[in-house]
Amino acid sequence: MSLTLRRLGLAAAAPLALAGLAAAQFSTVAAFTGNAQETFETQSLASGPFPTCVTDRVFAGQADLCAEAGSAHITGGWGFSCTLQPFEGSRQVGSTGGALNYTFDTGVTRFGGWFATNNPTIGDGTIEFYGAGGVLLHSDVVNAPLGCTWTWNGWDTGGALVTTVRVIGNYGNGDHLMMDGMEADIVPGNAGVEYCFCDGGGTASPCGNPGAAGNGCANGADPAGAHLGATGFASVGASSLVLHGSGLVPNQPGLYFQGDNAVNGGGGNLFGDGLRCAGGNVVRIQVIAADASGNSATTADVVAAQIQPLVPGDVRRYQLWYRDPAGSPCGSFFNLTNGVEVTWLP
Asked: Looking at residue 96, which CATH number applies to its domain?
């Protein structure tokens, strides 16, 4: 076994370079109907109308919308130098301070909507499109004249995968640029297929410590065991893949790693208090400590972590190996999640 607990502290991978994507041919487009819409009619306002991030997410739960300062304000009529009514329905959104950022789970190839401002001094704004790794792919002017007039603005990315859209007003710190009737073409996720469960349906647990269905083996903090899932889009050109661990031992470090093979035909082999599911040409993705609730997620770019470049069609397996220093069921003081198999696309 080439992985050891003392090697959990290895540095994260270097940033990803995506110079080729920066040359994508972005273009403005007329009003369109995307495969996802957002009119801000359904989000909960139970926590008040001024959250930093929009409660319940946006675009049917496929994106976050957060303000860089102030709040992401969902409201009906919004008065300032003039009173702006929603473009459609009874709600609109804008920032009370700073830019608004749409962050998509998988990415978009078209984005647009209706924009307006009610500030008294300067109209219009700026929109920025970012790919995986925070690479700025394109920026453009948002047309939003003074006088509370709704104006359509839309963009086609020319095939580039955009994971974050940043909307910046020309007033204050980037605020008072409102939006409604938003449209997007969201790329379907291909986050992966989970396998190698320590739930009694395959390889037996090391010491009579099976976890719940779909999880790894039971650990000292959670008898249901820990779970590994994945979200995002696994593209060698513009990845937004994020690996998520839950049911971990709170505040303990874990290593997200990659292997070429599904160990034991996908059934896994006994290793510590769990099953090792991924092996062969192991790549260390990132070491992250679980939070107080036993959750963690990768922030490193999986493509950038590679020793040998990924190519479209490559199949890789992922797993999370974590410490369990107190209450370890088998006395090994470490455990693992289930595995996730990912097929990488162009």
From this structure: 2.60.120.200
